[in-house]
Amino acid sequence: MRLPLRHGILALKRADAVFALAAAAALVAIGAAKPAPDTASATTLKLAPAPKAFIDTSGAPLECAVYARGRSGVALYGDARTWWTQAEGKYRRATAPSAGAVIVMGGTEGGHVGVVAHVIDKRRILIDHANWMGRGEVITNALVEDASPAGDWSAVRVWNAEAAAFGGRAYPVLGFVLPL
Questions:
Q1: What is the DSSP string of 57-101?
Q2: Sign of CA dihedral 121, 122, 128, 131
Q3: Which residues of 96-125 are buried (b: 16+ CB within 10 A; e: fewer)?
Q4: Which of 87, 102, 145, 155 is deepest in the core (most CB within 10 A)?
Q5: Are 116 and 103 in contact, with CB atoms under 8 Å apart?
Q6: Residues 173, 175, 176, 177: what is their CA dihedral angle, to the nearest 10 degrees?
Q7: Which of 2, 61, 23 is nearest to 141 (CA)?
Q8: Side-chain-facing half-sphere of 158: CA atoms under 13 Å
């Protein structure tokens, strides 16, 4: 979909521009961005507020598994990378995201888990998670995109709120654990 914009240049930092483009693409995909009615000479683009990730360092440092367990009610323990196999027979498991589900990722020594806060569209979600940057912080509304070639959520890229860009690598996804 091509959206005509009024001629002119926006003065944005490169990282802000990358985020704005990613957010606009996500919003267009869900229909939240609608061009204003066409006037005689120009059309402007009106966007709903873009999702913004928040980093909270005010509390005690948290590991991702402790945060995900408390936020979701999924009572699994140990390294995040073990949650997928631990969930078998105890919780329903899925290969696609749904609000409230725990995303289980590999690609790091201990793995990573987060809680799906919102499904934006078939390739983008927002998650709440802890310790992504390794300092015990809690990040809410972090944008995650399906990076798998098949669109099957087997790999994702995670928004880095400090860099205001997606990370440079994709992380394998073991699946989504659904709370009871």
A1: -SS----HHHHHHHHH-----S-GGGHHHHHTTTSEEESS--TTP
A2: negative
A3: ebeeebbbbbbeeeebbbbbbbeebeebbb
A4: 102
A5: yes
A6: -130
A7: 23
A8: 26
For the stretch 137-147, pLDDT in tens is 999 999 999 99
Over residues 125-179, the pLDDT tens digits come to 999 999 999 999 999 999 999 999 999 999 999 998 888 889 889 999 999 999 9
Give pLDDT tens digits for 59-78: 999 999 999 999 999 999 99
Name the DSSP class of 41: S
Closest by CA to 171, choosing from 111, 123, 128, is 111
Judged against a pLDDT cut of 60, whether residue 81 lies above it is answered with: yes
**Domains of the chain with bracketed CATH:** 1-50 (no CATH), 54-178 (3.90.1720.10)
Q: Cα dist. 112→4, 63, 68, 90, 168 in Å?
A: 40, 9, 10, 20, 17
Rounded to two decimals, the pTM is 0.73
Vertex 41, ends 40 and 42: CA angle to 5°? 115
Q: Reduce the DSSP state of residue 142 to 3 states and report it.
A: strand
